[in-house]
Automatic annotation (TrEMBL):
UniProt key word Hydrolase: yes
GO MF terms, alphabetically ordered: beta-glucosidase activity
SUPFAM superfamilies for the chain: (Trans)glycosidases (SSF51445)
Annotated binding of substrate, by residue: Q22, H123, N175, Y307, W428, E435, W436
EC number: 3.2.1.21
InterPro entries: GH, GH_1_N_CS, Glyco_hydro_1, Glyco_hydro_1_AS, Glyco_hydro_1_beta-glucosidase
Protein's UniProt name: Beta-glucosidase
Residues in coiled coil: none
Catalytic activity annotation: Hydrolysis of terminal, non-reducing beta-D-glucosyl residues with release of beta-D-glucose
Active site per the UniProt annotation: E176, E381
Organism placement in taxonomy: Bacteria, Bacillati, Actinomycetota, Actinomycetes, Kitasatosporales
């Protein structure tokens, strides 16, 4: 059997991604104030090993070296996020110039090395002030369950666009609003750690509103060549069996994982089945007249973050750990669908215990090609954690990650051949970093980080990816 190499379009973007709280450190420098992730990581028991982002990869001081490293690896585009509390410490009012200067310098350095920047405005680090404020007198706190937070985001989007708009073309409003809403306010395994199903649904709505308001603010401030989108983590969700009951479980999770965001953002609606499934929890009276029209802004691209598929059935939870891929949470991140069971999809497991199955990525790219006709797609995150360790000589050999990436890039290529307009791929992540509730125990990087010395060592996957990026071609039978 002969294998042809897989050639990607010449304009295909080969990128890598990070997020501010996961890499920057320097949490008290230049007027930065705590975000909900600072508070959460400093709360005992919330993050594995008591890890925090206080130092992380010290990228705030090492950004020049990190850009050079990317250039050496032939990375064509870099997706990073702006730390809201570095730019607007209380989440409202005037911006801190030094905070903006950091990102302007970073962008200039990227451009000087021929690397295209993609800015994510919000990758989960809400200024703590906005969470602690009680705009509607809610005793539980503010944050995304409160409407005001969406207006604060609109203002923040305008500030960042004003500072970086002359040099950044690719803009994403939110990263994975599902995690912000349902892990942050539902299961509580992410900041701010609240466990209130109604608050989670309110948060989802106000994130939809924030996306719309933010996208509009970006367009008003940016030159017309700018491209504005959003990064979602749609769930590739499959029924355990073709039974009517399992198909219904699939429908419920599709509503709560996917359509709760794509409904407003792509179609300007919340689907009736989602409203019915959650009716015991909320009457959705916090949705105001124009909100859905606001959430539905024209998109220049849709960012898809993908790691692993989900398999669900209607049967109630069996005893034992939850298998929904979100840790052993006592509270469900699925309001109104507590009875749905999650099963392990077949396939090898990564260090996160997430099964490796590239067909989920191909399926999602084709599904969103159909759902958002004419909207270009980016894979804005894809990658895997493995137990990487430097060997003798200091090299880090990570053949499992190479196989993971090879499989998923093959799936992207198949999706393109089948008609998906995929413009680029951002590997998660450029380097090992603070993996949220798992702290530094999970390494997603193509570059190894020694947290004692902050030394960076490209793993063999980084060298492999550099070759793919340089040639625009995936070797057929990689081994
Ligand atoms: C995404 N889940 O996080 C984020 O965008 C990244 O910041 C993160 O490092 C990466 O994926 C790897 O985890 C997720 O539990 C965290 O379903 C948790 C879940 C999904 C995505």
């Amino acid at each position: 059997m002969t294998h042809a190499n897989l050639r990607f379009p010449a304009s295909f973007v080969w990128g890598a991604a990070t997020a501010a709280y996961q890499i920057e450190g320097a949490v008290r420098e230049d007027g930065r104030t705590p975000s909900i992730w600072d508070t959460f990581s400093h709360t005992p028991g919330k993050v594995l090993g008591g890890d925090t982002g206080d130092v992380a990869c010290d990228h705030f001081h090492r950004w020049r070296d990190d850009v050079r490293l990317m250039a050496d690896l032939g990375i064509g585009a870099y997706r990073f996020s702006v730390s809201w509390p570095r730019v607007q410490p209380t989440g409202r009012g005037p911006a801190v110039q030094r905070g903006l200067d950091f990102y302007r310098a970073l962008v200039d350095e990227l451009l000087a090395h021929g690397i295209t920047p993609m800015v994510t405005l919000y990758h989960w680090d809400l200024p703590q002030e906005l969470e602690s404020a009680f705009p509607s007198g809610s005793p539980a706190g503010g944050g995304w369950p409160e409407r005001d937070t969406a207006y604060r985001f609109e203002e923040y989007a305008g500030i960042v666009a004003g500072a970086l708009g002359d040099r950044v073309e690719l803009w994403a409003t939110l990263n994975e609003p599902w995690c912000s809403a349902f892990l942050g306010y539902g299961s509580g395994v992410h900041a701010p750690g609240r466990t209130d199903p109604e608050a989670a649904l309110r948060a989802a709505h106000h994130l939809n509103l924030a996306h719309g308001l933010g996208a509009r603010a970006l367009r008003a401030a940016l030159p017309t060549r700018a491209r504005v989108g959003v990064c979602l983590n749609p769930s590739a969700v499959r029924p355990l069996t073709p039974s009517a009951a399992d198909l219904d479980a699939r429908r419920r999770i599709d509503a709560l994982a996917n359509r709760v965001f794509t409904g407003p953002m792509l179609r300007g609606t919340y689907d009736d089945d989602l409203l019915a499934d959650t009716a015991r929890i909320t009457d959705w009276s916090f949705v105001r007249d124009r909100d859905l029209a606001t959430a539905r802004q024209p998109l220049d691209f849709l960012g898809i973050n993908y790691y692993s598929p989900a398999v669900v059935s209607a049967a109630p939870h069996a005893d034992g750990p939850r298998l929904d891929g979100h840790g052993a949470a006592d509270h469900s991140p699925w309001p109104g669908a507590d009875s749905v069971s999650f099963h392990r999809a077949p396939g090898e497991l990564t260090a996160m215990d997430w099964p490796v199955d590239p067909t989920g990525l191909k399926d999602l790219l084709l599904e969103y090609t159909a759902q958002a006709p004419g909207v270009p797609l980016f894979v804005t995150e894809n990658g895997a954690a493995y137990d990487d360790k430097p060997g003798a000589g200091g090299q880090v050999h990570d053949p499992d990650r190479i196989r993971y990436l090879h499989g998923h890039l093959t799936a992207v290529h198949e999706a393109i051949l089948a008609g998906a307009d995929v413009r680029g791929y951002f590997l998660w992540s450029l380097m090992d970093n603070f993996e949220w509730a798992y702290g530094y125990s999970k390494r997603f990087g193509a570059v190894y980080v020694d947290y004692e010395t902050q030394e960076r060592t490209p793993k063999s996957s980084a060298h492999w990816y550099a070759k793919v990026a340089a040639s625009g071609e995936l070797r057929a039978a990689e081994e």
